Amino acid sequence: MDAIIKNFPSDAVDTRPTLAEAEEAVRTLLRWAGDDVSREGLADTPKRVAASYRELFSGYDQDPEEVLGRTFEEVAGYDDIVLVKDIPFFSHCEHHMVPIIGKAHIAYLPGGKVLGLSKIARVVEIFGRRLQTQEAMTAQVASAIDGTLQPRGVAVMIEAEHLCMAMRGIQKQGSTTITTTFTGAFKSDPHEQVRFMTLIRGRG
Ligand SMILES: Nc1nc2c(ncn2[C@@H]2O[C@H](COP(=O)(O)OP(=O)(O)OP(=O)(O)O)[C@@H](O)[C@H]2O)c(=O)[nH]1
Ligand SMILES: [Zn+2]
User: Which residues, by Cβ under 5 Å, contact ligand 2, an ion?
Assistant: First the structure.
């Protein structure tokens, strides 16, 4: 997992295809779906899909450590839980390349350094905009924050609907998958986990 967090996964791909090759691949999939690539409505679709992949999978070219490296000293007088909850995200499952729609709740206990709040949401974006399993994404977000900020603990919960389970296959709409990763005090102290859960559910 470290390799996924520390490096740009795109570096591991020795040669990215050209744009023309990517557009040709889209044409192939359109034909596989049963459509006619020569009809007018599809003329620009390969170009649009290739451009949209650049955006939807932009996380491969972004380094979470760079984003999380911009910290500032602990805010005087505050050393308690910092929780950003209900961060919406879209990802794609690595099995079917179909959307995962969810929200992330992320907390940490400062250990000397504090993150800009937007950086927490940026980390969700970086890992979300890659092909994922929900478990891996949850662990990656927690590990990236833990490794760079070195707080007293990190808690990550992701709640998501997998459209590969809703639109196809078993076709169960509306089910939610919940995954959690706890480090440090959140892992060792059940009381801290309860506080995290209570704050997420809005009763804190
Ligand atoms: N653990 C985990 N599984 C996932 C995630 N996203 C999708 N899956 C599952 O990955 C599995 C892939 O199963 P396969 O049997 O190889 O593929 P499949 O024949 O398309 O499976 P079905 O979806 O059951 O039709 C399915 O059970 C999906 O529900 C995820 O984030 N985490
Ligand atoms: Zn899937």
Answer: 93, 95-96, 164
Q: What is the mean pLDDT of residues 145-166?
A: 97
| ipTM score of complex | 0.88
Predicted TM-score of the model (pTM)? 0.92
Tell whether domain 2-56 is in CATH 1.10.286: yes
For ligand 1, the distance from its centroid to the CA atom of residue 95, given in whole angstroms, is 6
Tens digits of per-residue pLDDT, 33-81?
999 999 999 999 999 999 999 999 999 999 999 999 888 877 777 889 9
pLDDT of residue 1: 44
Would you call 92 a catalytic residue per the annotation?
A: no
Q: State whether residue 14 is helix, strand or coil.
A: coil
CA distance 12 to 22: 18
Of 1, 130, 114, which is closest to residue 56 (Cα–Cα)? 130
CB 90 within 8 A of CB 108: no
In this predicted model, what pLDDT tens digit does every residue of 98-114 receive, in sequence order? 999 999 999 999 998 89
64-200: which CATH topology?
Answer: GTP Cyclohydrolase I, domain 2 (3.30.1130)
Pocket test for ligand 1, best of 131, 138, 164 (most atoms within 8 A of CB): 164
